[in-house]
Specification:
Blueprint lengths: L4 E4 L2 E4 L5 E3 L18 H28 L5 H11 L2
Antiparallel strand pairs: 1-2, 2-3
Helix pairs in contact: 1-2
The structure holds zinc ion (ZN).
The site of zinc ion has 8 residues, from loops.
Amino acid sequence: MKYGINQNENLIKCANCNEVVSNNGEFTVNFCSKCGAPLSVSAIADFEERKDAVKINLLNELKEIAADNKTDSFLDIVKVYREENE
Ligand SMILES: [Zn+2]
């Protein structure tokens, strides 16, 4: 996913999907209304932080499953994870 904006005079377009997110050259939203891509620097930073947090949570969950089920088999771990999350 590309981040940020493509600016052309007063039109600001989402760099990810090309949706016009502003037609007066001013930023009023942090995220693209069409694809949800972060548009401002602070929104991008938040997005990256949340993404990292999700990854760490998932990794911890998989580690717990491995410990609970006494297995190092990735396939087994994924199977248990799927059962728990369906
Ligand atoms: Zn977009």
